[in-house]
Design brief:
With 1230 residues, this protein is α/β, with parallel strands linked by helices. Helices cover 21% and strands 26% of the residues. An eight-stranded parallel β-sheet has the order 3-4-7-2-10-12-13-14, with helices on both faces. Strands 32-33-36-31-38-40-41-50 form an eight-stranded parallel β-sheet, with helices on both faces. Strands 42, 43, 44, 45, 46, 47, 48 and 49 form an eight-stranded mixed β-sheet that branches. Strand 60 and strand 61 form a beta hairpin. The longest helix is centred in the N-terminal third of the chain and has 18 residues. Belongs to the peptidase S8 family.
């Protein structure tokens, strides 16, 4: 149901992949006497994604092996009755299919077979009942194997394949062998193998994939991504029938062929030999055929090359395999190169190819652009700032690939050029001459230049291959080919099949259609039409036009008709497509599930109770809170001393079962498009909604605390303000259909500020983002939306709250820090964190290490030291303090009856079920060292206490960072506010970890930072009720406190590879991507002096600059806005309080930011600027007078080593300081 999501590259069903099932090495000339480097080979790790492995097979014995390579970061998590060794160093199990198989142990035989072909030990006298007797050995017998079991009896799920790639990439494998595949080719962004191997390639890992067993039809190859090697199957000189797989018609696929028929290799003794139930035979080795068998042959060879060239890129190894392949006899195969690609792999020659065709990540991105992928999709795929030119003229044929293929129209003459670049990996001072082997009269091939001279190793040279022809006949000559050979006299096999011309009418195999899934989609129709209009009638009518079977009333989930136009409906994919193409429809997208983004804070910001407030005006301000509901009986929401609701209030109290509003909580609505039957009231059963509402506008409550921790006064930013509660979240999430419904109601109800501590897991297009859509229409009605930035940090580009018409808030610390202490038996005292309100009465308790408490035959040492519950021996743990090397060790300790626990600190405190302290890694090692030094280790954990943190504010590690992946010219987050260890109201329904209920709780997250800013926005509104949403936003941003960049740098260091070297203070400007304009200042925000106002027209112009057309813009805006045909503007020109631009690396730049400010301070005032601005002085005679200026930024070029530069524009009249960050950035090393 999520197929339309723009910010997710693709959503596709988790399909079932199929398994595609040793004289072979000798046949290839790869004898046992060939030159090897066993020590280096032993450091190579081959990842095998398959049905598992039988570790007891002699092929996987670890006799003679040393410890695993130091680079190995994986685990042995093989499940029941599975143990790794020094040969099989890693194992992981994936089972989204919920198969009953609970071990990496191979019950099929396929995985053991493929793993032993790639890297099995040499086994003498192996045979299948005497057949094919001889030595069974892998391509790299000294290499290590990491096994990722994704396949079960019914197949191999996409979800598991992607999970395996995800782990293998981070585990440290060098080569990935995956003998699985689809029955037909899919789009790259819907192919789990293509997606996984792309990210592997980006990390320097080559993926080898079986081409598939769908032959002999053309277009039957399912492995099509150019960043992995696709392998066909062929015979050896031991006579068996030939089995080949044919090409796909876009790039030459398969790439190469290798032995795949009648291959003897290891097997699983529990795997069936035949489909006959009566066949009970068990074997250690068997003979199988298929591209599954050819794939690990090439994986082994790739690993062999890696031992000689450990620094070669995946594409260099791929090129070496392809360009040194044996030419194959095209007359033996009806489809020639479509069957065998570049030829038969040659392991010996592949080590020394002479020249290689290298393709980098950027080259593949460019290819995707030429295929029609847009910039947003490409950036999400690549994780960087790659962009696609608006008029991309390239073609996938231009990819620097070792083979060259193109499709031409039947019977029409053609001229095709293939630009290529080769890198010299042979000798310096070498000259290569081109020879074209062409026996086909239908084409002519030229190479320019035809001689390449290299002075140095790694030197690059470019050339162009030109192919001309008079036309190919779709029946008689549908395919024409030739080959290009570069030779220096030594390397004469640098060969690529250079031209495969496919006639357009050649028979194709259609892509299999996806399964039909009925889901809830949102149909966004823009603004409400003016004049008399019946939205419900329109919505039902639109549905009637597209539905195929169900009635419109049954399909309709909700109409949006109060503040904007649209509806949610249950649709099939086919119905969704029909709707998306109807005139007047802005977008159709799935109703996604958004996530919650989980008091000294006000005093820390200088916003004390003594701060000037206007209670009477504040009481007229209404904050709409979109969340999990509210607990109205909390003291924070008492209506004592409140008068009746403001006259402007037009909402209702429709809170459902057992819910009553009051004069503080004046409105309540519940939304439930998920039909969640366990929650039929606005009453908060989660606690999150009560917490956020009380931060924004809770009453003053004395002596609030969490079991005595952080005791003091709990209060909101505007205690006299009213609350309107829109419950959009239930236990399983917050549907976008309900969020849009809440925006529709809130805008019409009369709220002034909207606080929404929710967010998506990834960026989507503006017209598909429910928060961006709702906030746009709220802005048009004068309502400011404040949104949490997200908890996806510390990675860059992790913020998905990107619309410029709302405020995106990051989370930072306050000057109160809650700590805990542990005292060891030797007197050592260590500080850590947790919300530990237990006391141990000053007594020492025995200390025990999780690793030493493992239940017999239950778990391995790794899981035991993590303190996984089922792994612990309760009798050994009971009454002791358990030392755990995971962040969740307290859960296992509690399960086992421990007296307390010491666990790993991940930067955020939590409520614990027993005395617990979380320590940093180095302190955890001190405890472990003490434990190992004595036979009577003991410790005591003290109760948590609050101390002053002078380093605050520092942005939280989890807080999402910029830049803005959707609109690079708009800085996000906008601002930061307290979001760590915030005490606020809670619901008594949810139980804490210790099973107790509380009225007040301590939580952390951007969810907590967001309502702080919402409360301050309401405070500003109480002083300036006529101010626009953009004026309030500008006041918040331009008066923010500058942050200590160096203090905030640590929180994003892990997101940058530049942290490998010490960073100078001047380079610490990356911090601006985490905190935006700075830390919010409530007192100064009410008197900013100048504001940057942005109108609805400005935003529609920005949409035009982003490429939205007039029709779309008018539907969104509801007016007659139009986009110029040749719009030359840029989103950077939006009158925004910050200024941001992306520039290309190493290129001089000059960027201008036009801006206009409005005087909201004194009349007859003059402001002076402190950076290069034209003009640099602004003189105002009147209030509300506007003045324009241009900020000019120039530079000599940005580098990846220093990818961000920032400055601050400050306008000052001596009283007011108006600050705006200016940010220039280029590509990041992430």
């Amino acid at each position: 149901m999520f197929a339309g999501k723009d910010g997710v590259v693709s959503i596709f069903p988790s399909k079932l992949l199929q398994l595609q099932t040793t004289r072979s090495w000798d046949f290839m000339g790869f004898s046992e006497t060939i030159q090897r480097k066993p020590a280096v080979e032993s450091d190579v790790i081959v990842g095998v994604i398959d049905t598992g492995i039988w570790p007891e097979s002699p092929s996987f014995s670890d006799e003679g092996f040393g410890p695993p390579p130091k680079k190995w970061k994986g685990v042995c998590s093989g499940g029941k009755n599975f143990t790794c060794n020094k040969k099989v160093i890693g194992a992981q199990l994936y089972n989204s299919l919920n198969d009953s198989d609970d071990s990496v142990r191979d019950r099929d035989g396929h995985g053991s077979h493929t793993a032993s072909i790639a890297a099995g030990n040499k086994i003498k006298g192996a045979s299948f009942y005497g057949v094919a007797e001889g030595d069974a050995r892998g391509g790299v017998p000294s290499a290590r194997i990491a096994v990722y079991k994704v396949c079960f009896r019914i197949g191999c799920a996409d979800a598991d394949v992607l999970a395996a790639f995800d782990d293998a990439i981070s585990d440290g494998v060098d080569i990935i062998s995956v003998s699985l595949g689809k029955q037909s080719a899919l789009n790259l962004n819907e192919d789990s193998l293509a997606i996984g191997s792309f990210h592997a390639m980006a990390k320097g890992i080559l993926t080898l994939n079986s081409a598939g067993n769908g032959g002999p039809n053309t277009y039957s190859v399912g492995s099509v991504a150019p960043w992995m090697v696709s392998i066909a199957a062929s015979t050896t000189d031991r006579q068996i029938i030939t089995k080949v797989v044919l090409g796909n018609g876009t790039t030459l696929a398969p790439d190469i062929t290798a032995p795949g028929v009648d291959i003897l290799a290891a097997y699983s003794p529990v795997a069936p030999l035949t489909d006959e139930a009566e066949d009970k035979r068990s074997v250690k080795y068997t003979i199988l055929s298929g591209t599954s068998m050819s794939c690990p042959h090439v994986a082994g060879i790739a690993a062999y090359i890696k031992t000689f060239h450990p620094d070669w890129s995946p594409s260099a190894i791929q090129s070496a395999l392809i360009t040194t392949a044996w030419p194959m006899n095209g007359t033996t195969y009806n489809d020639g190169e479509l069957a065998f690609g570049s030829g038969h792999v040659d392991p010996v020659k592949a080590v020394s190819p002479g020249l290689v065709y290298e393709a980098l990540k950027a080259d593949y991105i460019k290819m995707m652009c030429s295929m029609g992928y847009d910039t947003k999709t490409v950036r999400l795929v690549s994780g960087d700032n790659s962009s696609c030119p608006k008029d991309t003229k390239g073609s996938p044929k231009d990819l620097n690939y070792p083979s060259m293929a193109v499709k031409v129209e039947a019977t029409k003459s053609f001229k095709v050029e293939f630009p290529r670049t080769v890198t010299n990996v042979g000798c310096a001072n070498s000259t290569y001459k081109a020879t074209v082997i062409n026996t086909n009269s239908h084409i002519k091939v030229q190479v320019n230049p035809d001689t390449l001279s290299f002075k140095l190793e790694k030197e690059k040279k470019s050339f162009v291959v030109t192919v001309v022809g008079q036309g190919l006949d779709s029946v008689e000559t549908p395919v024409a080919s030739a080959s290009l050979v570069w030779s220096d006299g030594t390397h004469s096999t640098t060969r690529s099949w250079d031209f495969i011309g496919f006639s357009e009418t050649i028979k194709r195999r259609p892509v299999v259609e996806s399964n039909i899934i009925v889901g809830v989609y949102i149909v966004y129709l823009g603004s409400l039409p003016k004049g008399e209009f019946s939205p419900m009638s329109q919505h039902l009518g639109v549905l009637e036009d597209v539905l195929e079977g169900s009635s419109s009333t049954d399909s309709l989930v909700r109409s949006y008709k109060r503040s904007f136009n649209g509806f949610a409906a249950r649709l099939t994919e086919k119905e969704r497509e029909k709707l998306a193409n109807k005139e007047g429809v802005v977008s159709v997208f799935p109703s996604r599930i958004l996530k919650l983004q989980t008091t000294r804070s006000w005093d820390f910001m200088g916003f004390s109770e003594a701060a000037r407030q206007k209670p009477a005006l504040e009481s007229d301000v209404i904050i709409g809170v979109f969340d999990t509901g509210i607990w109205p009986e909390s003291h924070s929401f008492s209506d004592k001393d409140f008068g009746p609701p403001p006259r402007k209030w037009k909402g209702v109290c429709s809170g459902g079962k057992n819910f009553t509003c009051n004069k503080k909580v004046i409105g309540a609505r519940i939304y439930n498009s998920l039909n969640y039957t366990f929650d039929d009231s606005v009453r908060d059963i989660d606690g999150h909604g009560s917490h956020t509402a009380s931060i924004a506008a809770g009453n003053n409550v004395e002596n609030a605390s969490l079991h005595g921790i952080a005791q003091g006064k709990a209060r909101g930013g505007v205690p006299s303000a009213r609350l309107a509660i829109y419950k959009v979240c239930v236990a399983i999430g917050c549907p976008s259909a309900d969020i849009l419904a809440a925006f529709d109601d809130a805008a019409a109800d009369g709220v002034d500020i909207i606080s929404i501590s929710l967010g998506l897991d990834s960026a989507v297009a503006l017209e598909e983002d429910p928060i961006a859509i709702g906030a746009f229409h709220a802005m048009a009605g004068g309502i400011l939306t404040v949104n949490s930035a997200g908890n996806k940090g510390p990675g860059l580009f992790s913020i998905y709250s990107f619309a410029p018409w709302m405020v995106s808030v990051a989370a930072s610390t306050i000057d109160r820090k809650i700590i805990d202490k542990v005292v060891l038996g030797n007197g050592t005292e260590l500080k850590g964190r947790s919300f530990n309100y237990f006391t141990m009465n000053g007594s020492m308790y025995p200390l025990i290490y999780g690793k030493d408490t493992s239940r017999a035959n239950a778990c391995n040492n790794f899981l035991s030291k993590l303190c996984v519950a089922d792994c612990l021996n309760k009798s050994a743990v009971r009454g002791k303090i358990l030392l755990c090397e995971s962040a969740y060790g307290d859960e296992g300790a509690h399960w086992a009856g421990a007296a307390g626990s010491i666990k790993l600190d991940i930067g955020v405190s939590s409520v614990v079920p027993l005395p617990t302290i979380a320590l940093r890694g180095k302190d955890l090692r001190i405890v472990r060292s003490y434990y190992n030094s004595t036979k009577k280790a003991e410790a005591k954990i003290l109760k948590s206490e609050a101390i002053k943190d002078s380093s605050a504010p520092v942005v939280a590690p989890f807080s999402s960072r910029g830049p803005n992946s959707a609109i690079p010219e708009i800085m996000k987050p906008d601002i930061t506010a307290p979001g760590i260890d915030i005490l606020a109201a809670y619901s008594p329904i949810p139980k804490l970890a210790d099973g107790t209920s509380v009225e007040y709780n301590i939580l952390s997250g951007t969810s907590m930072a967001c309502p702080h800013v919402a409360g301050i926005a309401a405070y500003v509104k109480s002083f300036h009720p006529a101010w626009s949403a953009s004026a309030i936003r500008s006041a918040l941003m331009t008066t923010a406190q500058p942050m200590k960049v160096s203090a905030n740098l640590h929180a994003i260091r892990s997101a940058l590879m530049t942290t490998a070297r010490p960073m100078k203070a001047s380079a610490n400007l990356h911090g601006v991507l985490s905190f935006g304009s700075g830390h919010v200042d409530p007192v100064k925000a009410k008197s900013p002096g100048l504001v940057y106002e942005t109108t609805k027209d400005n935003y529609t112009q920005m949409l035009c600059d982003m490429g939205y057309n007039t029709t779309m813009v008018r539907l969104i805006s509801g007016d007659n806005s139009s986009c110029p045909k040749d719009s030359k503007g840029s989103p950077k020109d939006l009158n925004y309080p910050s200024m941001t631009v992306y520039v290309k690396q190493l290129r001089p730049f000059k960027v201008e930011f036009p801006r206009t400010v409005t005087n909201v301070g004194r009349s007859n005032s003059t402001y002076k600027a402190q950076v290069e601005v034209n003009p640099s002085i602004l003189s105002f005679k009147l209030k509300k007078e506007k003045k324009s200026f241009v900020v000019i930024v120039t530079g000599q070029g940005m580098t990846m080593e220093r990818p961000v530069e920032s400055a601050t524009l400050v306008w000052s009249d001596g009283t007011h300081t108006v600050r705006s960050p200016v940010i220039v950035y280029t590509d990041f090393l992430i």
